[in-house]
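Budget justification note: compute hours in this period were largely spent on complex prediction jobs such as the one shown. Inputs:
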Amino acid sequence: MDIVISELTKKFADNTVIDRFSAVIKENQRTFIMGPSGCGKTTLINILLGLVPFDSGVIKGVPERKSVVFQEDRLCESFNSISNVRLVLNRKVDDSVIISHLEQIGLKDDLYKPVIELSGGMRRRVAIVRAILAESEILFLDEPFKGLDTETKKNVMSYLLENTRNKTTIIVTHDIEDVNALSGNVIAMDM
Amino acid sequence: MISTTQDKLDNKHTKRRIEKLVAVVIALLVWQVAAMLIGEHLLLVTPITVVKRLFSLLTEADFFRTIIYSFLRIVSGFFLGLLIGSLMAILAGRFHIAKIMFWPYMVTIKSVPVASFIILCLIWLTSSSLSIFISFLMVLPIIYTNILQGIESTDQKLLEMTQVYRVSWLKKLKYIYLPQIKTYLISACSVALGLAWKSGIAAEVIGVSFGSIGEKLYESKIYYSTADLFAWTVIIVLLSVGFEKIVLFLIKRFFIRLERS
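Corresponding output:
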C-alpha cells in the first residue's frame, strides 16, 4: 500500500515548518526526500514515525512495523555493536547473523567494543545494520551517509542496495549523487 | 605509548596512596602527642591504648555476636531502603502522580532530625528492630532521589528509538534505564551506606538494644571507658567502610556483566 500524504501542515509555535505538503510514497520502492536545510525533512520523517503530531492534513498507509536510522545514531553507549542490534530484534536471531552483517559493513575488528569507543562512521554503520535487521515493513534513513568517508560510503551503499530491495525505503539526503547511486523516486520539499 | 600512559597513571595512584598514608601517620602522631600532653585517659586515650583494647575485645566471648547482631540489622535496613527506594523511584518516574504523592514523605524524612525519629520509633517498635527501621528510613530518600534523578535524565531520543522499534519493557530496563542509573546508584549507595551505619548505631545507643554495638557504646559512656568508646568506634568505621567497598564492588561488577551480556 502506498503512503499518501495530503495537505500536511506542521507548526512549531508560530513557525510553520511544513505547509500543506502533499506526496505519494510508493510501496516497495526507494524514495528520496530532498530539500534545503530547515525545510522540514526530518520533521516529516518524525511525523511518519509517529513521534511528532501534526496540525492538519491526512496521512494514509504508513505500515505498523518501522525501522529507522535517525540523524543521530541513538545507540546504547556502554553496549557493544552486537548488543545494540540485538536490542531491536523481537524475533530470535542468531548472533552469527548479526555478526555477518556487521562484518559485511566493515566492523569486523570492533564487534565487541562498547559503541562509545567507536568512531562516528562506525557508529553510523551500527545504526544502519540495526535498522536493516529489525523486522519492519518500511525503512526510514535520515541522512544515512553522514560522517562516512568515500570508500566506506560506497561499501554502505552496496550493503543498502542489497538489503533494501523491494522494501519501502525513505531516504533523506542533500546529495543528488546518493540518488544516482541508489536510484529511486525523488520528492522535493521547499522552504 | 599506551603502557607509558598506564605506568604514569599507576605512579600517580601509588603517589596518592603514599601521601594519604603519610597523612594518616601524622594524624595518629598528633593524636598520640595530644593524649600524652593532656595526660588524662578519661578525656583522651592514646591510639596505642585503643589498639590494645581492640585486641582485648577480640578475645571477649560476645564480641562477634555483638558485631553480627548490629551488622545484620543495619544491613537489612540498608537493603530494605535500597529495594523500596528503587521501586518507589520507578513508580515516580513512570507516574507523575506517584512522584507528587511521595514528595511530602521524602521531604519529611530528609528534614526531620534522626534523633526525633529514633525517639518516636521507640514508642512504636521494639529496641531490637529499631536499628533496621532507622537505617531503612535514612537510606530510603537518598536511594529514591538519586534513582529518580537517573530515570528522569534518561535520553529521550533513545526512548523514541525504542518506541519506533517496539522494544519490550524488560529490554528497555536492561539497555536504557539500568546503564542510565548506574552512576546515580553508585553515588547513592556510597552515601547511604555510611548513613545507614551512623543512624543504625545511633538508634541502638538511644534504644539501648541488648547485645548490640550501640549498647557497648552506651556502656562505655556509663562507665566512662573512653578506650572502649574509641575501640568500638574503630570497629564501626571498619565495618562501615568494608561493607561499603563490598557493596560498591558488587554493583560495579553487576554493571560490567550487564554491559558484556
